[in-house]
Structure prediction request, 190 residues.
Amino acid sequence: VGWLVGLTLIVMVMLITQASHSKLIFLANDQMFDNEYNRGDIAHPECYENSRNKEHGMILSAVLSSDKVSSERIEVFVPVFPNEASRLEELCGVAVYPDSLSNSEKRMINRTHKLKCLDQYHQFYLNDTLVPKNIIKYQHPNQDENGIKAFISTNGLENGKHILKVEKIKKEGEPHRTMQIPFFYFGNSN
Prediction:
């Protein structure tokens, strides 16, 4: 019996050590998440597709294609975690439809409702100015993370450093999670 207790303690220490080094801790603690990714003065390599690698693991923050943008739009992936389902339902409620609809019609209503809710849940800012966006649901190929891909116009953006801020909004209208990603824009030929 004594060896079983000793083995159990060793396994517990190993699990706690592994969990303390895991980025999954950010999913349970919004403050730790915000301290890590809510800084426009730090360019985290895992927040840019062109500098991510397998060692970065699961995507925990918004991801731009590059830290250098020169096109007419910015494309950004924002993960949506399973533990956010309750926040989405609180914000938007559930889809309502008549019982007479077919299952495929109900699925279509549910998909439309979820996309509208995801659009309401995410706000995007360029240099602290709220900007319009177009979104689609997206499954990122990194580890099949679910989320959205947003497309934001760079029209009128000056060459130089900018900060993209993404906020996930609570029902009360206040953000519960904020991510900031600095990038450089070089698309203006003036």
Summary: Residues 20-29 have pLDDT under 50 and may be disordered. Strands lie at 63-64, 68-69, 73-79, 122-126, 129-131, 134-140, 145-153, 160-169, 175-185. DSSP finds five helices and nine strands in the chain. The first strand starts at residue 63 and ends at 64.
